[in-house]
Amino acid sequence: MMKRLLLMAAVLVLASAAPAFAQKSKVKNKEIKTKEKRFETVVKENVADYAGRYEGFEAGYYIEIRVDSGNSLSGTSFEGDRRAELQDIKGEQGRLTATKVYSDGGRGELTATFSNRILNGVTNFGMVIEGSISVAPGVTFDRVFYRRD
What we know:
By secondary structure, this protein is an alpha+beta fold. Helix content is about 20%, strand content about 55%.
């Protein structure tokens, strides 16, 4: 009889502790979902500091920015199986604009802001690409961060 009473008491203690444990788990999950994400425009004095490869949201999407000895910008945009040379590049006050010229003769515009992305306290330098970026039939992004390698 004593064993049975002890067993019932233990079951009651565990049963009453279960809701408190579940509540703590929910609070932890809410904390995990909280993100700090912001962008800060970066203006560099030397245009050569913008040169590099900027990785997009998936493999095959990246932009290469080059600077020649005369501090002129050039570049190439890779968009999956499409490639575009960047022409008429202008860069000032942390913004970059260019015309994308595809091998099939098509054209598009590139507008980007060089920025630091701060995500949960971790900072990465790159470009925020603005405008319509098509990644699949019927799927486009309006704003994407490309991180410099």
